[in-house]
Amino acid sequence: MSDLELEERLKKRLEDKFGGDILEMAVQRRRRLWLTVKPEKLVDMMRFLYEEMGFNHLATITGVDFGAELGALYHTTDQHNIITVRAKTPRANPSLPTVRDVFPGTESYERELEDLFGIKIEGLPPGRHYPLPDDFPPGQHPLRKDWKLTDAYPEPAVKEAK
Amino acid sequence: MKTKSLKEKIITWSRVKSPWILHFNSGGCNGCDIEVVDALTPRYDLERFGIQLKPTPRHADVMVVSGPVTRQQIKRIKRIYDQMAEPKFVVAVGACACSGGVFDGCYCVAPGGLDKVVPVSAYIPGCPVRPEAVIDGVVKLLGSLQK
Amino acid sequence: MSKISIPLGPQHPGLKEPINFGLVLEGEQIDKATVNLGYNHRGVEKAAEERTYIQDIYLIERVCGICSHSHVTCYITCVEEIAKAEIPERAKAIRVLVGELERIHSHLLWLGIAAYEIGFDTLFMYVWRDREHVLDCLELVGGNRVHYSINTLGGVRRDITPEIKAELLKRIDILEARTKYYTTLATEETTVLARTQNVGVLPKDLGIRLGACGPTARASGIARDVRKDEPYLIYDKLDFKLITADTCDVFGRVVVRVLETVESCRIIRQVLNYLPEGPISIKVPWKIPEGEAVNRYEAPRGEDIHYVKGNGTDKPERVKVRAPTLANYHAVPHMLEGGWLADVPLVIAAIDPCMSCSDRALVTDRAAARSAVWSWEEMRRNGIEFYKRRGVDFSKVTLK
Question: What's the domain range around B60?
Fold first, then answer.
């Protein structure tokens, strides 16, 4: 495993700092580290990655429907490696803190989480819809697995029935 | 077929010789857009038919629409169509504008093609359309005006 | 002086990032700019979950017509990583070849648009005429001018024959000579300098904080290039320079793009001479096992990142696409603030958002309570006239 030395070192540093707050962590392959963190520690972790470890670029945030839970993946990079931080939140009342204080250029990614998954982002200033249309029915989140097109627009169902 | 008066002939002639087009992307992938612009640049040079790209609907005779119609754009496309002066023509460029293409069935795309939103005079299929196809489509549209 | 607010946009041809800029003016200077996104959202990510991996190749290709190869390559590397499929070396080389041809196509297209925005129409026509050579090359390799669909699961669809190779080498020589001429033109012609220098400035530290990427970041001295930072395909075997500029303005972005085009010509020559023998694709099962992968790709406009999650069936569980432009939009308000209204079209075009805009701007004069709708064309005209009054006139420039 000598070729994964650097990745193991990154893992060790995060383990030393956050310990029990990291629910799981694994080196997937060269340059890829995946971990799950408790949502309340998310912002601390992002700040640590940015300020101490040089992971100064948040490439994007991916929302994922895990079934019982919803979650977000924060892909941070220091140009050479990608550390993906998972944060999960219960489906019944999903909410995650904003990471805008650390990475100011992430507003649109967080709005995507709100619109497409219905994850409430704590601390995100109110703004317009993104990326759904202005007249999209409220309370509908198309990227959730149980969402169907007919929930928002019943008319195509009529067309198919013909 | 009734014969046209001289006045009508002159009007048709001037219309056919200088159709000004408005290019509108209703939510497409840019593939068709760059090919439409390509048709206007030196190699294909649509301008030799008197065709010019115009930025405002009020100056244009033909609206060239590319891309599937997204729900956010339905209202806008209708408004732009209403702003155009008569007689007006709409050309659907590309598979997406003709029928929805690969995006038919997406939640933010209006089902069906452009003709569900505004009346369409000519369809140019292809994904993306080739500049030759654009020229062919436009010339056929102009030919139908002469009759 | 009363402040004027202008909403600019939102009709903008693009992926899901058509934009609306709210500009607050003080005289002709921009006091504050805000960005609103999300007009042409089509729902590609949901659609990708309902289609098979093979169908998704053609769907994701149509996310963007200009960098279609970038998106597909990024997506397909994720899928192949989950399936643990190692594709043949020859297929990797062909992917790089098409990727670099696409970079030339995109950068030349951009140079034309930028020339058009500053009122240098002759250069626009020149560049677009020469761009036809790249499109011919792409048609030769992939069979289509824009969506060439060279990728398939496990490799590429078409091989490079010796005849194609000879033709490509011939065209690349023409392109390189023309690009070198444009480099001289863009860096020495005083009228171009007058329009681009100190316009749309993005300082280095701000660029890093806002997550800028691609030529926009490299023009601010940020050495970010996925091809160098995390070499994918065969980029670790190639010799090419990472181009940066430290002027942080639109001029820097022009320089970075034209020099990158020259580098791409060099890369293409190396790839064609390297091209190892062997098959061009391997068989990959239709069902992709459970697993997830995230990969980056240096698209012409910057870093493109895709995330794919497989669930053991022939359809993906989740596909996430983040196009480079989305990362760069956050930097635009900072580039605009403090600048002139006349520079707005150029600054927005300088990040290469997507091509020509039918954008309409609503000019509202609050004090006089009157409003007028400005088209993008009128904005552009206004910009050209504004600079003509200051002695910058492109009608006096002669080209060879």
Answer: 6-146
CA C25 to chain centre: 29
For position A120, which CATH number holds? 3.30.460.80
H/E stretch holding C93: helix C89-117
Query: Which pTM value belongs to this model?
Result: 0.87
- CATH code assigned at C381: 3.30.390
Residue C102 phi, psi (nearest 5): -65, -35
What subunits touch chain B, counting only 3 or more CB pairs under 8 A? A, C
Mapping DSSP onto H, E and C, the string for C378-397 reads: HHHHHHHHHHHCCCCCHHHC
Q: Which DSSP symbol is given to A85? A: E
pLDDT score of A135 more than 80: no
Q: Are C309 and C318 in contact (CB under 8 A)?
A: yes
Sequence-separated (6 or more) residues with CB below 8 Å from residue C289: C82, C83, C84, C310, C312
Token pair, residue C391, equals: 């002695």
Domain tally, chain A: 1
What is the domain range of residue C382?
3-40+327-396
Residues C127 and A85: their CA atoms lie apart, in Å, by 44
Does the predicted interface ipTM exceed a cut of 0.85? yes
Quote the CA–CA distance of B8 and B16 in Å, as a whole number: 12
How far does C308 lie from chain A, in Å, by closest CA? 10
pLDDT in tens, C306-363: 999 998 899 999 998 888 877 787 788 888 888 887 777 777 777 766 532 323 333 3
Q: Which of A60, A76, A116, A143 to mutate to test the interface with C (most CBs of C within 10 A)?
A: A60
CA distance B27 to chain A (A): 12
Instruction: Give A-chain residues touching C318 at CB under 8 angstroms.
Output: 62, 64-65
On chain A, the residues whose CB falls within 8 A of the CB of C213 are 57
Paired tokens of C334: 């900072």
Structure tokens at C12: 């903008």
Q: What is the pLDDT of residue C369?
A: 31
Q: What is the phi-psi region of residue A79: left when phi exceeds 0, alpha when psi lies from -120 to 50, beta otherwise?
A: left
SS3 (DSSP) at C320: strand
User: What percentage of residues in chain C have a pLDDT greater than 90?
Assistant: 30
Shared domain for C22 and C115, answered yes or no, is no
A110 has a pLDDT exceeding 70: yes
Nearest CA in chain A to B104: A156
Identify the DSSP state of A19: G
Per residue in A47-94, pLDDT (tens digit) is 999 988 888 888 889 999 888 889 899 999 988 889 999 999 998 888
| Collapsed DSSP state (helix, strand, coil) of residue C168 | helix
Instruction: With beta carbons under 8 A apart, name residues in chain C contacting B73.
Output: 11, 39-40
pLDDT of residue B46: 83
Residues 109-138 of A with CB under 8 A from B: 132-136
| Residue C137 sits in the same domain as residue C73 | yes
Pick the residue with more confidence: C87 or C400? Answer: C87
The number of folded domains in chain B is 1
Task: Looking at the structure, tell me whether residues C305 and C392 fall in a common domain.
Answer: no
Q: What percent of chain C is predicted at pLDDT more than 70? A: 82
Structure confidence by residue, pLDDT tens digits, B80-98? 888 888 888 999 999 988 8
Residues C150, C99, single domain; the answer is yes
